[in-house]
Write a structure and sequence with these properties.
With about 425 residues, the protein is α/β, with parallel strands linked by helices. It contains 16 helices and 16 strands. Helix 5 (about 110-125) packs across helix 12. The radius of gyration is 23 Å and the shape is globular.
């Protein structure tokens, strides 16, 4: 591990990728170092270094945004040649604020929800806490940072993969299943990226990992870590969680997320009565297992954030008579692992680019139909639902796929679904 002591000060730095994190890195470093900017989109409204001049410059560091794939970008050859100079905004942050407490959440599913619950918990305990990373603001955009400021960070495999310095006092790997194989090339590379969070932890740091997850268990057995590893048994739900009166935590996935929050809270010695109030009042995040409509015979759930089967399984287990909307761009290596006893409870309505993939996965398991688009699929479901064949029915929008075939992102997809429901609310 490289020692981080303001190593970026007065250095020659190239910032590659000018999304939110790239811009915040530029604003943070522009008065501290000699900064050059580059982005694959030449229409960015900032002064960019000419691509021809990049090879001729001798940069001390290259800060790349999480969205940059060094195998598939304009500076691919240059980045591979200068791979040891690549760092992230997390590294820049750590080099300036290493004494601040960080609680970093990663995993395949549940990162945003867990980070938000933890943030709310700490905020209600009157802590100076910031929610940053994949959720909230880029970490370098935060202002008025004090010694007691706590950072709750949602970290993706993309960020962790390129980090070299960043260390978190508390870390959590919620779960691991096959994901982002298109970017990481192999499942092993993806797992290694997640575990960089533990690799850089030192004695006195704590890591919370899901007990029984095959990939996590195998990785822990394969090497020694300096941090203290705490295995969270998500199958043995704490009595404390069972007594929480909040419908949001009825699903297995959200109970697992909450299990991590409870275990981390124990280490932080938080006030239990305040913790209970926070969890009871937690409303959940938009488009993540979000109940957008409910009456005596129908529940509608918007889970647009779902991009893999593993992220949808818990909802398929707990809801009755499900009309399941799914489809889009499938994830490489994704597996549909749901036990047979749930199959009769579910009818699938498939839309989007990769219908053949989903047909193959659900063939002889679940009754399914194909549609040209989400609107047509929902229209068919509403016709069936209006017949009120069952005592209670569930429309579950949990696509198990990326949204890029028809939408900008999962938020755009989720908002589109909400608007469709609003149009048909009178019929419902």
């Amino acid at each position: 591990m490289v020692k981080a002591k303001n190593i970026f000060l007065k250095k020659k730095i190239l910032i590659y990728g000018l999304g939110k994190s790239g811009i915040s890195t530029f604003k943070f470093l522009k008065d501290k170092a000699k900064v050059y900017l580059f982005d694959d989109n030449s229409k960015i409204n900032l002064k960019l270094i000419d691509i021809q001049k990049i090879e001729k410059k001798e940069f001390d560091f290259i800060i790349i945004s999480p969205g940059i794939d060094i195998s598939n970008c304009k500076l691919s050859k240059f980045l591979k040649k200068n791979f040891l100079k690549i760092y992230t905004d997390l590294d820049v942050f750590y080099s300036f604020y290493k004494k601040n407490m960080c609680i970093t959440i990663t995993g395949t599913n549940g990162k945003s929800t867990t980070a938000k619950i933890l943030y709310d918990v700490l905020f209600d305990q009157k802590k100076d806490v910031r929610l940053v990373g994949n959720i909230g603001n880029p970490i370098l955009s935060e202002k008025n940072i004090k010694k007691k400021t706590i950072f709750v960070i949602e970290a993706s495999s993309y960020q962790l993969d390129y980090s070299r310095l960043f260390t978190s006092k508390y870390a959590a790997i919620l779960n691991i299943s096959a994901d982002h194989i298109e970017r990481h090339k192999t499942l092993k590379n993806y797992i290694n990226a997640k575990f960089k969070l533990l690799d850089f932890q030192i004695k006195g740091c704590f890591s919370f990992v899901k007990k029984g997850n095959e990939y996590i268990e195998k990785k822990i057995k394969s090497k020694k870590f300096k941090c203290k590893i705490i295995k969270v048994n998500t199958k043995k739900i704490d009595k404390f969680i069972k007594n929480i009166d909040n419908e949001y935590f009825s699903s297995e996935a959200n109970q697992e997320n909450l299990s991590f929050v409870v275990e981390i809270s124990k280490k932080l010695n938080l006030k239990k009565d305040v913790l209970i109030d926070t969890i009871r009042n937690f409303k959940g995040l938009k488009y993540r297992q979000q109940i957008i409509f409910k009456n005596e015979y129908l529940t509608i759930i918007n889970d647009s954030k779902s991009t893999s089967f593993s992220s949808s399984i818990s909802l398929l287990k707990v809801n009755p008579n499900i009309f399941w909307l799914l489809g889009g761009v499938h994830k490489k290596g994704d597996k549909f692992d749901l036990s047979k006893r749930y199959f009769k409870n579910i009818k699938a309505f498939i839309f989007g680019k990769d219908k053949k993939f989903f047909n193959k996965k659900l063939h002889k398991k679940i009754e399914y139909r194909n549609f040209n688009n989400l609107k047509d699929a929902l229209k068919k479901i509403l016709i069936i639902v209006k017949n009120k064949k069952f005592k209670h029915q569930t429309i579950l929008f949990s696509p198990c796929a990326a949204s890029f075939d028809s939408f900008k992102n999962f938020e755009d997809r989720g908002n589109y679904f909400n608007n469709l429901i609003k149009k048909h609310l009178n019929e419902i």
